What we know:
Blueprint: H1 2-9, H2 16-26, E1 57-70, E2 73-76, E3 81-89, E4 96-99, E5 112-113, E6 129-134, E7 142-143, H3 145-150, E8 156-165, E9 174-175, E10 182-186, E11 206-209, E12 215-225, E13 233-234, H4 240-251, E14 261-272, H5 273-277
Antiparallel strand pairs: 1-2, 1-3, 1-14, 3-4, 4-7, 5-6, 6-8, 7-8, 8-9, 8-10, 9-13, 11-12, 12-14
Helix pairs in contact: 1-2
Amino acid sequence: MRRYLNARIGARKATVAAVVGAALLVALGSAAPAGAALTGEFAEFAQCPVSNESVESCLIAKATGGEFTVGSRTVPIKHTVTLQGGLIADAETGGFKMAAAINGETLSKTPQTVPGGLIGIEGLFGEVTATTELAGSASGITLSPENLIIESGTALTLPVKLKIGNPILGNHCYGGSNSHPIVLNLTTGTTSPPKPNKPISGKRGTISEGEDEEILIISENSLVNNSFAAPGVEGCGLIPFLTDPLVDLAMGVPAGEGHNTAILNGVIKLTSAEDVKERL
């Protein structure tokens, strides 16, 4: 990672914030091919799509806590949600676009329990879950390491759709879709949402290195957004045109900008292709 750092930064002078941002950028590379016998700390990067020659970077981001508020419902994140794959440099923005994980699980489909179930009474009509899924292709995900570090602007753009799970609702009950995603422009800084939401702040977290100093770790990280809109649901139950409005009423959607919140707390890990390949 240090060799890649020197190559990317060179002799260029920069502000402290820019230097730290550059340090993050150089922690990115491509990772091991499918089935590679990566071990130890590097085993987490086995799904990075190194067969794509454009991939410069490997990313693992885990949301281990936080919450989603959509309409009238707040869903705590109690089960880890994982974002993984490769990163491709974007010359226009200076940031990166995501390349899909080898196993197709770029964003893990991790159900979270909706408190109160369908109508606010726990257990009635069975458990209700909310699962945040990637909407569209992985290339719609963007990362700005500099913004993440300086705690300003959008650090991570994540287009998602929200699956509402329940035996009565069937397997196709969604808010948002691949063509009309819920777009989360997440920041480690302070938001400026429409009313009635008030500004909230994320945080960069603590930056450290792995045991062998070749993996960059950002722990106690918090990414937030409370200015996105949440659409009504579609495809719920056996007769959606009857069921969808009932679910909308129960969830308080559609909900315009300023009525929804995403808080993702966890850890981000980055490493370079060169360092991974040395361990194959």
